[in-house]
Amino acid sequence: MNYLANGQEVEVVSKVDDGYVVRPILEYGDGEATYLGDPFIVPIVLDEPATEKLHAQVAALDATIADKNRELRELRQQVTEAEKESKARMARLASHKALTRLEDFIAGKITHYAVFGEYDTPRIMTLEATKTDDEGTYRRDTFRLLSLFGRSNGDLEWQLNRYSDGSGSNHTVIPTTSEDDAKESVRDFLRTEGAKLGQPSHYPRRCFVDAAKQYGVELPAAYVERVQKAEQEGAQRQLAEAEQSLERARQRAVSCGLIKTEEPTQ
Description:
alpha+beta, elongated
């Protein structure tokens, strides 16, 4: 068996002045049966398949793996640069503060809300902004519904609805009398979030770490480390999955004949 420059398998029939008379080796069905095609003349035949194309593809695969390793190193560097220092814990807002906010609302002193969500970055919105829904799509002359909810432990919690009639979802909020007051409420929330570390069913979140940076709050080092560890493990899983997918794709390409493996030197 010999090969042409393009990797095609052929059988040499004879040597002629212009080169070689060859017949291509063809296969059908599942590739288990072969037959010889019509003869033709070629200037040269090879004892081994050409490998230049293979080398180029292997180099491309190596470059892809190197890029992914570099991305992982950069991600690890970003994670290690996150804040690690902690600050003293603060008690959450006492229930009577909610009633104070009620008096402020009645008196028309509320100007801003500190808005919180389990998976969302804490943010600040103005009272005027509550005349629209979350996406700012619908604007009305009435404010979105603000309600005071009581918990079984006696705590009170303000919640702001998506719509003015209360038909949508709610966000936990703290009404405030100034933007600075709203920022301090966000800081209090983040400090309380940091103090929850280790409690059952509590999971530190990147959005809270980012918000802590934005508002100048130092979360406990263990909290930040938990977030870093989770992100590192997630990045490692993604890299491993990507490399496995790449290898499976390469094996499929080999099996389909798109690329050919080098035969060992005799």
